[in-house]
Amino acid sequence: MKGWFQKLTDVSTVARTKEMFNEALTELAQELGFEYYAYLNLQPIGTFAVSNYHPEWQDWYFAKSFNEIDPVIQIARSTMKAFTWSSANSRTVRSRRVRQFYLDAAGFGIRSGITMNSTEICRRLLS
């Protein structure tokens, strides 16, 4: 996993275009056995996002304002550790809107993943 963190850091530093970044992230996701990826960089001055999620899912996600309740983003903001997540967790969620988020994501083939934030990547690389 440490090697993957290093590759992710290298890619985010070296990629000169969005296309290069997409291609590199696709390869890294496949190395870990995932079909999809989403890279989100949240900064006070703006947000940068790159994803190979289905365009219809991306449109649906923002049309439904899922970015406001996405539990994966909420956990990533509150923890400085990498974590796994799964739509199977939706059964224990009280919020109907969050359960719907998981159901809709699963309908587009998004059922589980690994999430890490850049602070965690840097911390692990320096350890």
From TrEMBL:
<dbReference type="InterPro" id="IPR005143">
    <property type="entry name" value="TF_LuxR_autoind-bd_dom"/>
</dbReference>
<keyword id="KW-0614">Plasmid</keyword>
<keyword id="KW-0805">Transcription regulation</keyword>
<protein>
    <submittedName>
        <fullName>Autoinducer binding domain-containing protein</fullName>
    </submittedName>
</protein>
<feature type="domain" description="Transcription factor LuxR-like autoinducer-binding">
    <location>
        <begin position="21"/>
        <end position="116"/>
    </location>
</feature>
<dbReference type="Pfam" id="PF03472">
    <property type="entry name" value="Autoind_bind"/>
</dbReference>
<keyword id="KW-0804">Transcription</keyword>
<keyword id="KW-0238">DNA-binding</keyword>
<dbReference type="InterPro" id="IPR036693">
    <property type="entry name" value="TF_LuxR_autoind-bd_dom_sf"/>
</dbReference>
